[in-house]
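Section 5.1 Outputs to date
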Amino acid sequence: MAIEAVIFDFGGVLTSSPFEAFTRFETERGLPVDIIRRTNAANHLENAWAKFERAEVDVETFDKLFAAESLALGAEVRGRDVLPLLQGDLRPEMVKALKRIKAGFKTGCITNNLPANAIGSMTGRSLYVAEVMVLFDHVIESAKIGLRKPDPRIYQLMVETLQVDPRKCVYLDDLGVNLKPAREMGMTTIKVTSGAQAIAELEAATGLKLG
């Protein structure tokens, strides 16, 4: 079945993964390996991270909840200290691929993000992120609608808005847990580990030359 739409995650797909920054932070502070990722993964539908991405708690509450959850796993990490680590760098090769895809396919972005200004002033970053966001036909932000991946409803919302059959969609994400609902709906899924790998798989799925 021919592809009609390509749907992207934002962080870790169009930008580099924050996991490298997590590791650096843990090493510098002498924290247990992967404590931040393990805190994010524990009770991942209802933990501090999930609540913050659905805009159910404010920064202060997130800071305290994350500290308690990480402490239960072996070391206290303040949620407020994790937020600055989230700013990955844009992958120019992925932005270029997105521009080429936009010329022939519908495009969407589903991003689990944080309420506006949660990370403080990021004016410069906001500008270049805005330049990328205008390339999408539709963007769904978890903090704006109170739903986050992997809730199947967020993917359903995207295909309904784009008016496309999920079996004619490609979905890219760097987290396996977020790919599963898309795959179950019939989408072609790509787990992003690097820009080059993602582009190669996108070329195979769409038949476009993107490199």
